[in-house]
Amino acid sequence: MMTDYADRLHAAIQKKRTPALVGLDPRLDQLPTEIIEKARNASINEYEMAANAFEEFCKHIIDVVSPLVPAVKPQSAFFEQLGAAGCLALQRVISYARQAGLIVICDAKRGDIGSTALGYAKAYLAGEDPQAAPFAADALTVNPYLGSDTLEPFIETAVQRGAGIYVLVRTSNPGAASFQDHTEQDQKLYQKVAASVEESACQAASNAVGNYGCVGAVVGATYPQELQQLRRAMPHVPLLIPGYGAHGGGAVDVATAFDADGLGAIINSSRGINFAYNAEPYKEQFAPDQWEQAVELATKEMIKDIANNTPAGNLQ
Q1: What pLDDT, in 10s, does the model give residues 125-166?
Q2: Which of 38, 59, 109, 283 is the catalytic position?
Q3: Is 109 one of the catalytic residues?
Q4: Within a domain: 178
């Protein structure tokens, strides 16, 4: 019998004793010099060079964080902008992370109708079996704003493969309110989406051992009061929370996302971990060639912050 995504995720969180999630957002202008030089010497054009650099950089980060955190979240856009070479690098990074024992959430924000949505689902949702999809992620971020029917192919594939989806409900970007706060009959649009996600999560949770199923939600750390309301509105929905660190959200802001056992949510930091060596206080503590030590310390400090300020401390 296929193991439900939320059960696998929570087992990984309990094993590592933290819900910290490291995003993989490689940016060429911030990569260590030695990685760029090595990639340039092995490449035939700029796209290939960047793709090779992104792959090696992300693999180094995976080596550093895999003993510390349960999951990573590669952002597909950074790879896709490089064409075929970038897509191949994304495949390899996902595979490398899976081999390291990490849960992989591919942040691609896919959303479409009918057979097109099914195509995206089959491409990214490998779930329990890494061989089940070319981009072998455990879970995928999904955009619901074409309508609730667009989620069905993703949910069906997730259930079949022991995968998960995270539906965009309340995002952390400053302009989110321009559409998501649209109000009709005293209900905001994101609240209507949340109600639909909760219903879908309950319907899809028949294989789950715990209270959560394979249908999750993305809710930003930059709106703590709304996060608290949405947690109450979606009690069976695992949450993916961006906005920690570089976007301004702190551990105190995300405390209400967790249940009493410290489960039910995973907190993402990307730039604050990836490029810690370029920012204070790590820039002062580490030389440029010690960038991996900066990544490790930033990850450990995030884990400590979450443990000290949220119910996730009960995992320690």
Answers
A1: 999 999 999 999 999 999 998 998 999 999 999 999 999 999
A2: 109
A3: yes
A4: yes
